[in-house]
Amino acid sequence: MPITRWDNPKAKAPEQDAIKNWSPTTEKTIDDFVKEAAMEPIEKPSFPQKSAYKRKREEKKVESPEDAHKRRVEWLHKRAKESAIPTEEGAVLKPSFIFKDIGPFIVNMCLNCRIFNSTQEPKTVADGMVQMPMALCTVCRAHFNHQRATKFFHFDLPSVKKNYNL
């Protein structure tokens, strides 16, 4: 038989003492633990709970719609002063490149171009085909070219790379 430290007859195992002395009044119940936990103060964490952006947003005062509109107009005027009007060289459209593209044909127009184009009459060219004259200012043409170039470099080339595992 193995010798353990409880082989001494005078020493009692702690488990035996706990079993002999147990009574429902001496033991803590679950309710006691819950009550103690509820009474203990909750420590706040040392790190901030919200990001700086959220705190700043909450600290901002609520502004009226008129003030918000004025701020938007001021921001728009500031950006417009910094922008440059495109030149005619950057606004040249080549129909052979425009219409042979596989993707959708999307044209963004300014208000002046829309108003002018709304007065133009479409012409019937062939059965089921209508020719709609479209006039674009320098800004609209330059944006159309830029949008096509952006699509090529930021969508078409990555798509080819992905498809061919380059």
Overview of the molecule:
The protein is elongated. Helices cover 50% and strands 4% of the residues. The longest helix is centred in the last third of the chain and has 27 residues, at 138-164. It has a two-stranded antiparallel sheet. Strand 1 (123-126) and strand 2 (129-131) form a beta hairpin. It has helices at 14-20, 30-39, 52-59, 65-82, 95-99, 111-118, 138-164; strands spanning 123-126, 129-131.
Give a quick rundown of the structure.
The chain has 166 residues and is mostly helical. It has helices spanning 14-20, 30-39, 52-59, 65-82, 95-99, 111-118, 138-164; strands spanning 123-126, 129-131.
What distance separates the N and C termini?
74 Å
Q: What is the makeup of the main sheet?
A: 2 strands, antiparallel
Give, in order, the helices and strands. HHHHHHEEH
The helix content is: 40-55%
Q: Tell me, briefly, the overall form.
A: elongated
Adjacency order of strands in the biggest sheet: 1-2
Q: How many β strands by DSSP?
A: 2
Radius of gyration: 39 Å
Region (Disordered): 1-70
Biased composition (Basic and acidic residues): 7-18, 28-43, 59-70
What is the topology?
Layout: H1 14-20, H2 30-39, H3 52-59, H4 65-82, H5 95-99, H6 111-118, E1 123-126, E2 129-131, H7 138-164
Antiparallel strand pairs: 1-2
